[in-house]
Amino acid sequence: MEGMDLEMVEQVARLDEWVAEGDVVVLSGAGLSTDSGIPDYRGPSGSARRGSPMTYQTFTGDPVARRRYWARSHLGWRTIGDARPNDGHRAVARLQERGLLAGVITQNVDGLHQAAGARDVIELHGNMARVVCLACGDTSGRDELEARLSAANPGFEAVAATVNPDGDVELDDAEVAGFTVVDCGACGGMLKPDVVYFGETVPPDRVSRSFALVAGARTLLVLGSSLTVMSGRRFVLRAVRDGVRVAIVNRGVTRGEPYADLVIDAPLGVILPNLAPLTV
Ligand SMILES: NC(=O)c1ccc[n+]([C@@H]2O[C@H](COP(=O)([O-])OP(=O)(O)OC[C@H]3O[C@@H](n4cnc5c(N)ncnc54)[C@H](O)[C@@H]3O)[C@@H](O)[C@H]2O)c1
Ligand SMILES: [Zn+2]
């Protein structure tokens, strides 16, 4: 508990009690993965995010935007593909292993909960490590696609030498124009990362399974999400409606504050390893 003031020590002790009572549902966001080197959207490290996020409509309707997306993403993929779980992901997996969690719902698309050993994770927004064909519905691994993109674009990595370390790659129009996009190996249809874009809805079964988890929980524990998007915030609203208490651990403000019974404004890497310490 080094470095915490008295108020925070008390807050963590309270959260610790709630976690020890079990039936906790975790709702995680991008803030849980910043310690793994993946930038968030709205936190301090994500405030420099340029431009607006890709929408489903732009991706499917604008071939130039789509080519730009795949070119940038091909270069930036390793940031997510090579990321490793951090102490926060490991703490969540440990709580689950000890039977204290009723479920894990994540808005993240990086697969790091599972990489840390968590099971039955509901990936609300999908997973970047998968690719889906919009024509035939076939899903395949991102690594396989990366190999096909590399083969279709020999020397491309060398051309685009000025890669941003956070994977947010800037490319000029000429570099993008020379990039070849790859289509579905099964039917030739349009491929898309198996993630939910802005302008898409989360598949209803994921939402209903998540609502059911929250309704049956004792505590909804929000980890590293600004709760800006309704996609995640609705579970906080449901928890309040169902009388499920809400705890938030997040650096900086969130849109869940008015509904939360406990808010800890601190780094997850400091708080999570302190929860439910192994005393036996
Ligand atoms: N890792 C990923 O998979 C990833 C990364 C970026 C964005 N996204 C997508 O973008 C959307 C972003 O919404 P969101 O609410 O998840 O994220 P967000 O970017 O809106 O909010 C993240 C919050 O976490 C806080 N934070 C960052 N690092 C932290 C740390 N170490 N400890 C405590 N708090 C920390 C930030 O201050 C911010 O308030 C999601 O829908 C998600 O699908 C995913
Ligand atoms: Zn197909």
Rg (C-alpha, Å):
20 Å
What is the CATH C-level name of the largest domain? Alpha Beta
Terminal Cα span = 19 Å
- Strand count, sense and closure of the main sheet? 6 strands, parallel
Q: pLDDT under 50 segments (min length 5)?
A: none
SSE pattern, N- to C-terminal:
HEHHHEHEEEHHHEHEHEEH
Main sheet strand line-up: 3-2-1-7-8-9
Q: What share of residues is helical?
A: 25-40%
Main location: cytoplasm
GO cellular component, one term: cytoplasm
Family: Belongs to the sirtuin family. Class II subfamily.
Cofactor: Zn(2+)
Short description:
Helix content is 37%, strand content 15%. The protein has helices spanning 6-20, 56-61, 63-81, 87-97, 112-115, 142-152, 156-159, 173-177, 204-215, 230-241, 268-271; strands spanning 24-28, 101-106, 121-123, 126-133, 139-141, 191-195, 219-223, 245-249, 262-264. It starts with 5 loop residues before the first helix and ends in a 9-residue tail after the last helix.
SSE blueprint and pairings:
Elements: H1 6-20, E1 24-28, H2 56-61, H3 63-81, H4 87-97, E2 101-106, H5 112-115, E3 121-123, E4 126-133, E5 139-141, H6 142-152, H7 156-159, H8 173-177, E6 191-195, H9 204-215, E7 219-223, H10 230-241, E8 245-249, E9 262-264, H11 268-271
Parallel strand pairs: 1-2, 1-7, 2-3, 7-8, 8-9
Antiparallel strand pairs: 4-5, 4-6
